[in-house]
């Protein structure tokens, strides 16, 4: 979630969810087929964001579906809902056979507990007690003997994802659940029912009721607000949630209480850990950053791209960042993005490559390890190569999924040995088609990747001028072994698939094809062009693809992708595509004109196109003719949520997405395209996606080369710098130890070691100074920004713990509670 004002702090949350598998699902009743056909959905509260493919007839289905997205709005729970798709029920009577089997609900405040590890979680039933969202603004005031209770308004109420409420509220005095006191006298203290407000998710109740509490001990009582949706259906009114306000703890001597409260489930009793509904294995990564204005990150950003002119690369901030981080990938991700955006990546990679070649012991393992250099190049290819992979690989991956053929060639895994001939033929066909597409894609390889591969190859050529196999090994090691082969093996990790539904046949076929591609890369890395297979059953694959003509074509491919002087072909990258609802802004006609039309939209760097058929676009809007994009806010009508407007020179489109996440993805992509259509200079320091107005303010763009500008990749430098800041802060003790080691090296008899130690000490001192100043400003900005967000305000309702910074060993936890602001400890006490 971004702040509209660039001078304010930004709260940005990212969620990655992998739904791995289910186990021990219960069988259906005797009147239905025994096995279940299940699919899962990812929900923020009640809003469905993604849905997996259906795995049929299995009590232990494997999905492997992976989704990653930025969270566009406040939420309380991440819900993984499991549905049973009973096709026989649909076929018999045409009814909807999708029944909710259960769900896993994780509170936002608990997500950090599950982040980064696999967890088996029990599936619990879905009922009215668990499907609660929304909040109430209420006021309780005691004047003498009178207790006045006023319900002012509600917000974010809904009876289902796409339906507004006909809501009313029951207000009553109660003893707390489990209290030994006798029940309230309802004749003296009747339940007050508000009027019903129809077709709204934000009802304005403005109703009051009074009670004479002269002889009651208020500290033993609570006020209960029970919210319902009025329904004439078979099951009657629908429970939406309740609020219980203890009178003793919320007055604090003031005799008046006014606050926002979250609605809660009807019962807060803990559920049993063992569930008869089965369990689900999830892998979750949740991150939350609070980002202060970008000007405060600039000293650290300028320092990050420096390479000492008179000192070794080991004294550079980039190298030191990788040295103190145990997980090199965590350092490489923000480092590559910042250096790429500021056009300093090639220089840093060149110096890191020289260092690795000077220290390598076995030339055959050159750039094959998990060094900072290898992780940086990996991240660069994954970041900038996503659309490149889609251009030549996705159709083959989709075909393997659709056909789901058995391509097993290991005799030990075959029930019938005679099947091996047919399986081998199918496997060779898949592999041949993929390798042909790879070798034909050289001119489509992004220039940024080619430039880096060219730097690495030239470094190897200068060091080993007579060994061409090492030069091919360097290029093949990255482009084939660390990009293409992993993308084949795990398409969901590279954005080629994300809905899961990978069968055993598909998994095995992808594994064997990936092995074949790796074998070609290994042949090119060997001076004798002979590779020994660990698996004898792969021999035919090696004979087929390990020699000419495939080997010759692959060498030409590697020569082309590692040349920085080749003119690249321009292939419009499909930034985003999918169905949206095109809303008709004119009033309905007498003949019942539809208010929405479903159309298939496709966005590239050049144009936005759409039509009824995904294969044919009947309308085209050049990016140069798009004037603006903006969210439309029409009250709180659910039917008008997730709507955005595109204004072009000749038309105006009002579009509705299926979810808030999808709407944000389209808005971000459109703003990104608009920010790149102009070649005018802007500030080097970019805060991410921008629109035309922010370009005029100088808040977007980059001074990077045109090769970087033309990449269809968004890089939020400010956010990446916050990640670097957090890494340095987390590993501050390691920086201190490095500083002490360098101080001891100053007494060495070796002049080169003394020079290196002095350079490293100077860099560490500067890093520590930058981090300390940035953290002090961070604390100040957060305190200023959240002073007004008291516990009970609209942005921090009562009912859940409010944490203003993500929890972790290196973060201060800032809590808002009881109207006070908790100041975090000073940096000195945290390190």
From TrEMBL:
PROSITE patterns: C2 (PS50004), PH_DOMAIN (PS50003), RAS_GTPASE_ACTIV_2 (PS50018). The lineage of its organism: Eukaryota, Metazoa, Ecdysozoa, Tardigrada, Eutardigrada. Gene3D superfamilies: C2 domain, GTPase Activation - p120gap, domain 1, Pleckstrin-homology domain (PH domain)/Phosphotyrosine-binding domain (PTB). Residues 573-675 form the PH domain. This is Ras-GAP domain-containing protein. PANTHER family: GTPASE-ACTIVATING PROTEIN, RAS GTPASE-ACTIVATING PROTEINS. Residues 327-522 form the Ras-GAP domain. GO terms for molecular function: GTPase activator activity. It comes from Ramazzottius varieornatus (Water bear). The gene is RvY_02017-1. Keywords: GTPase activation. Residues 1-121, 132-262 form the C2 domain.
């Amino acid at each position: 979630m971004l702040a509209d004002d660039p001078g304010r702090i930004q709260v940005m949350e990212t969620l990655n969810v992998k739904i791995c598998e289910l186990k021990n699902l219960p069988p259906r009743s005797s009147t239905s087929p025994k096995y279940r056909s299940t699919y899962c959905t990812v929900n923020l509260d009640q809003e469905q964001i993604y849905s997996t493919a259906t795995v049929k007839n299995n009590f232990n289905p494997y999905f492997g579906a992976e989704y990653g997205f930025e969270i566009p709005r406040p939420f309380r729970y991440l819900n993984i809902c499991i549905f049973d798709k009973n096709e026989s029920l649909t076929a018999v009577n045409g009814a909807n056979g999708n029944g909710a089997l259960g769900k896993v609900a994780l509170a936002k405040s608990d997500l950090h507990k599950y982040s980064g590890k696999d967890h088996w979680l029990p599936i619990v039933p879905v009922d009215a007690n668990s499907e609660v969202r929304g909040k109430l603004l209420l006021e309780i005031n005691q004047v003498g003997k009178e207790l006045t209770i006023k319900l002012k308004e509600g917000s974010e109420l809904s009876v289902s994802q796409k339906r507004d409420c006909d809501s009313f509220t029951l207000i009553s005095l109660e003893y707390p659940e489990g209290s030994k006191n006798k029940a309230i006298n309802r004749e003296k203290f009747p339940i007050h029912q508000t009027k019903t407000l129809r077709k709204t998710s934000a009802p304005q109740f403005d109703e009051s009721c009074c009670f004479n509490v002269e002889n009651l001990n208020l500290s033993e009582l609570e006020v209960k607000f029970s919210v319902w949706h009025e329904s004439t259906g078979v099951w009657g009114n629908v429970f939406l949630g309740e609020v219980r306000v203890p009178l003793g703890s919320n007055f604090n001597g003031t005799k008046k209480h006014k606050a926002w409260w979250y609605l809660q489930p009807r019962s807060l009793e803990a559920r049993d850990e063992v569930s008869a509904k089965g369990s689900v294995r999830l892998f979750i990564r949740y991150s939350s950053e609070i980002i202060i204005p970008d000007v405060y990150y600039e000293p650290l950003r300028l320092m990050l791209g420096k390479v000492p002119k008179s000192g070794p690369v080991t004294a550079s901030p980039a190298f030191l960042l990788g040295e103190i981080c145990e997980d090199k990938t965590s350092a490489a991700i923000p480092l590559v993005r910042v250096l790429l955006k500021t056009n300093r990546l090639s220089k840093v990679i060149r110096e890191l490559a020289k260092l690795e070649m000077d220290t390598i012991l076995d030339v055959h393992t050159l750039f094959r390890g998990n060094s900072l250099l290898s992780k940086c190049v990996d991240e660069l290819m994954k970041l900038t190569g996503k659309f490149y992979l889609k251009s030549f690989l996705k159709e083959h991956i989709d075909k393997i999924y659709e056909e789901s053929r058995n391509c097993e060639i290991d005799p030990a895994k075959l029930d019938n040995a005679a099947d091996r001939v047919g399986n081998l033929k199918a496997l060779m066909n898949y592999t041949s088609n993929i390798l042909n597409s790879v070798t034909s894609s050289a001119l489509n390889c992004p220039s940024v990747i080619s430039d880096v591969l060219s730097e690495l190859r030239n470094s190897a050529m200068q060091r080993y001028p007579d060994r061409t196999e090492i030069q091919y090994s360097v290029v093949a090691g990255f482009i084939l072994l660390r990009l293409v082969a992993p993308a084949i093996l795990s398409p969901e990790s590279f954005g080629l698939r994300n809905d899961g539904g990978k069968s055993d046949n598909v998994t095995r076929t992808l594994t064997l094809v990936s092995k074949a591609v790796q074998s070609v890369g290994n042949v090119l890395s060997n001076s004798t062009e002979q590779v020994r297979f660990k698996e004898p059953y792969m021999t035919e694959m090696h004979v087929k693809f390990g020699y000419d003509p495939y080997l010759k074509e692959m060498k030409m491919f590697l020569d082309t992708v590692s040349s920085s002087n080749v003119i690249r072909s321009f292939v419009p990258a499909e930034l985003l595509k999918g169905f949206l609802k095109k809303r008709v802004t004119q009033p309905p006609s007498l003949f019942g004109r539809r208010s929405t039309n479903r159309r298939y939209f496709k966005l590239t760097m050049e144009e936005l196109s759409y039509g009824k058929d995904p294969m044919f676009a009947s309308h085209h809007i050049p990016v140069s003719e798009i004037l603006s994009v903006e969210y439309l806010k029409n009250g709180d009508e659910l039917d008008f949520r997730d709507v955005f407007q595109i204004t072009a020179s000749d038309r105006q489109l009002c579009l509705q997405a299926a979810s808030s996440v999808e709407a944000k993805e389209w808005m971000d992509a459109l703003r990104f395209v608009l920010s790149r259509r102009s070649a005018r200079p802007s500030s080097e320091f970019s805060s991410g996606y921008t629109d035309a107005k922010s370009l005029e303010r100088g808040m977007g763009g980059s001074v990077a080369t045109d090769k970087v500008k033309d990449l269809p990749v968004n890089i939020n430098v400010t956010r990446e710098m916050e990640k670097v800041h957090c890494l340095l802060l987390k590993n501050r003790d390691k920086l201190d130890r490095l500083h002490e080691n360098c101080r001891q090296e100053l007494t060495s008899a070796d002049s080169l070691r003394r020079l290196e130690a002095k350079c490293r000490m100077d860099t560490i001192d500067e890093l520590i100074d930058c981090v300390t100043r940035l953290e002090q400003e961070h604390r100040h900005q957060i305190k200023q920004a959240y002073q007004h967000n008291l516990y009970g305000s609209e942005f921090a309702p009562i009912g859940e713990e409010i944490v203003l910074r993500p929890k972790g060993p290196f973060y201060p936890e800032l809590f808002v509670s009881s109207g006070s602001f908790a100041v975090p400890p000073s940096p000195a006490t945290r390190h």
